[in-house]
Design brief:
The complex is a heterodimer of chains A (425) and B (256). Chain A has helices spanning 5-32, 164-169, 209-212, 272-276, 316-324, 327-339; strands spanning 50-63, 70-84, 89-101, 110-121, 128-135, 174-183, 186-193, 217-227, 230-239, 245-253, 258-270, 283-296, 301-310, 347-355, 363-372, 378-387, 391-401, 413-424. Chain A is an alpha+beta fold and 425 residues long. In chain A, strand 6 (174-183) and strand 7 form a beta hairpin. In chain B, strand 12 (210-220) and strand 13 form a beta hairpin. The chains are: A alpha+beta (425), B alpha+beta (256).
Chain lengths: 425, 256
């Protein structure tokens, strides 16, 4: 067999490399042993009880119903504290101040949101907990729509981001008395939230108890961990003047890289489309559901696909009826759905993607698409965020696409671009 | 015949007693686990310094609260301290029950082992996880190996294979000091036999009643120029109830 000279040299090179590579790796290992840890004095031993950051945003929105685009800005101060008053008593306080220019229609330019203020008593550090005050009680593992998050209604005072995870950061808690018992692999929680005000307040400095405590409400939640790979929550919710609602959610580890989530609730209420159309209607019992899978690669890419269903959301026929009615009916329906954090359409799909360390270290990409399967309109959102030890800089882009009478096509803005900066103290 | 028996019998007993005195691979592993991990519930502050090609590119701090559950499962609750952006966020690992919790959004997100592997908290597993429970050890020889302070040590080389398919690393090679059972070095492999991490345990100091490694140097398997040094300080025995190691307790977690 005649060996081509080039093949011979390539083989020789490969053999040499095969020999050299482990040696190089071994050298790199030994080099690593010369490195020294960061100096001890520069690092605190425990997380601070107080967390403060400021956020600034400046952007531009393309308007559908006006020829010119519109510039906007926002400055926010975010403060949270959680600390022990005594060995058994813990206090939690969380507040956010937003200044928006221009102000949202019907709102003050400066809006203060007291998200949480409560005390928690855990006798002798044991398995019973009692809490009183304004508590942000959130349930549901789904990304874009949470049918078992029964206290979501009216909880968003300001909307500073469309990202569902960021939206939750602005959410108001409800004033409640809550008790919880923990045991190995589960817990039972009972919460009662009384009526304190009649309606939400547009005043920027109001505690806005009317947004979260405008009726008497109660929730019982039983959490069970069936195995290390499967856990669930069963929920029973009752509010004044309505039949009880039931719900369940679960998360499951499918493989080394995949996690599944699902949540379902069943409630009886008057169809919100009939309400918007001012058509008399009796309460009916219907289902809500969200379920999806998250897959993560070793390349730091996470992709979540989620299916969402709202039995009370607008079907194609409902949407046609709303389109045939005066514009105010559709606007009323959309505003009501937004306030309740409800799915506008009967069915929707969501794709949520995060890529950590995109091209360079600490540059994160987050993007999602919400797709209304009834009218085929969609919302696309993308963020590039660079982290530094004390601050972040982000560029956000979002587009609302669809026919002029569709869920996303009807919105006043077609595209929003903004730059955000955060500084953490 | 009697002479032969009298000659062989003591030899047999000597061999038998020598065999029982020789430590088994699993007992060597358990002894080295006990050095890395104080028994009982404890907390430790972990400072992570990341290097790329010898230059420091990042530093972060977290506090780990750990205990062994009644089923023998080693569980840890990690609270981020620095950078300020992540302060207060929590990561729970109780076997494959893994959760990330952000106090600002109140979101508890179940993590897959692969998701957790991408974060710095997974480096904590390399340093503190109880290997004897999840792996079967076999003695793969006696070797002289360079330790984290570049000194040559006589070591037992152990080959660890996962006894439970749910563990993060499919197999591990581990070098344990033959003199005192101190872990010296370990190589962590994926199921595909790909080297994921190499760890050197060094800077032994008295902590919670024993000489324990206070630094672990972790070298990325794919990119050996990517190095993380974990420094362990402020070891403290803690009362950590078993019921804290679950998703439902994360919103209520408040260390002293």
């Amino acid at each position: 067999m005649r060996l081509h000279p080039r093949s011979f040299y390539v083989s020789l090179l490969m053999a040499a490399l095969a020999h050299v590579q482990p040696a190089l790796a071994a050298d790199a290992e030994l080099d690593a042993l010369d490195l020294e840890s960061a100096p001890e004095a520069s690092t605190p031993a425990a997380a601070s009880n107080t967390k403060v950051f400021v956020e600034g945003a400046w952007g531009n929105a393309a308007q559908r119903y006006a020829p010119a685009s519109r510039a906007f800005g926002r400055a926010s101060l975010d403060l949270s504290y959680a600390g022990k008053l005594t060995p058994d008593v813990r206090a939690v306080f969380s507040d956010r101040l937003d200044y928006m220019d221009p102000a949202e229609a019907g709102s003050d330019a400066t809006v203060n949101s007291l998200r949480e203020a409560y005390v928690s008593w855990q006798p002798a550090g044991g398995n019973n907990l009692y809490e009183l005050g304004r508590i942000n009680l959130r349930y549901g593992p789904a990304f874009g729509y949470n049918p078992t998050d029964f206290f979501r209604d009216g909880s968003l005072r300001t909307l500073t981001s469309s990202n569902p995870f960021a939206m939750r950061e602005n959410r108001l808690g409800s004033v409640m008395l809550r008790g919880q018992r923990l045991w190995q692999g589960g817990s039972l929680s009972v919460a009662y939230s009384p009526k304190l005000e009649d309606r939400a307040s547009p005043s920027g400095w109001d505690l806005d108890l009317g947004a979260t405590n405008n009726r008497n409400r109660g929730l019982v939640a039983l959490s069970t961990q069936f195995s290390q790979k499967l856990s669930s929550q069963l929920l029973l919710y009752k509010e004044q003047g309505e039949s009880a609602a039931v719900g369940a959610n679960m998360t499951a580890l499918l493989s080394d890289a995949a996690v599944a989530h699902a949540e379902w609730s069943n409630a009886s209420q008057v169809d919100p489309v009939s309400r918007a159309l001012a058509v008399p209607g009796a309460a009916t019992r219907r289902n809500r559901f969200a379920g999806g899978v998250t897959y993560t690669t070793l390349g730091k890419l996470s992709v979540t696909a989620e299916y969402q269903y709202n039995g009370f959301g607008a079907s194609q026929q409902d949407w046609a009826a709303l389109s045939a009615a005066p514009m105010s009916a559709k606007v009323a329906y959309l505003i009501d759905a937004r306030a309740r954090q409800e799915l506008v359409s009967r069915q929707a799909l969501m794709l949520y993607v995060t890529q950590k360390d995109l091209f360079i270290k600490d540059l994160d990409l987050t993007a999602f698409v919400r797709f209304n399967t009834e009218d085929h309109s969609r919302q696309s959102w993308l963020e590039l965020r660079q982290h530094w030890p004390k601050y972040d800089l982000a560029l956000q882009w979002q587009q609302f696409s669809g026919k002029s009478d569709s869920e996303y096509g009807i919105l006043p803005y077609s595209r929003i671009v903004q730059v955000l900066g955060n500084y953490y103290f | 015949m009697k002479t032969l028996t009298s000659l062989l019998l003591p030899l047999f007993f000597f061999a038998a007693s020598a065999a029982s005195a020789a430590p088994t691979a699993n007992s060597i592993l358990a002894a080295s686990d006990a050095i890395r991990n104080p028994g009982g519930a404890f907390s430790v502050t972990v400072t992570l310094t990341e290097f790329q090609a010898g230059k420091q590119v990042d530093a972060s701090t977290l506090t780990s609260y750990s205990r062994t559950q009644s089923n023998g499962q080693f569980a840890s609750l990690v609270q981020f301290v620095l950078p300020a952006r992540d302060a207060g966020k929590l990561m729970l690992k109780n076997g494959n029950d893994m959760w990330f919790y952000d106090p600002l959004s109140k979101a508890s997100v179940r993590l897959s082992p692969q998701q957790r592997l991408l974060g710095q908290a997974s480096n904590g597993d390399v340093a503190t996880v109880n290997l004897a429970k999840d792996y079967t050890a076999a003695l793969a020889g006696e070797e002289e190996v360079q330790d984290g302070e570049r000194k040559l040590r006589k070591a037992h080389k152990l080959a660890l294979t996962a006894a439970n398919p749910d563990v993060t690393y499919a197999s591990i090679e581990m070098w344990v000091d033959a003199e005192n059972s101190r872990p010296i070095k370990a190589r962590f492999f994926a199921e595909s036999s790909r080297l994921l991490k190499t760890a050197y345990y060094r800077r032994y100091q008295p902590q919670l009643g024993a000489e324990r490694p206070t630094e672990t140097v972790i070298i990325d398997g794919l990119d050996p120029k990517s190095v993380t040094i974990m420094r362990f300080s402020d070891y403290a025995a803690r009362s950590i109830p078993e019921t804290w190691m679950q998703r439902d307790f994360l919103p209520r977690f408040q260390p002293e």
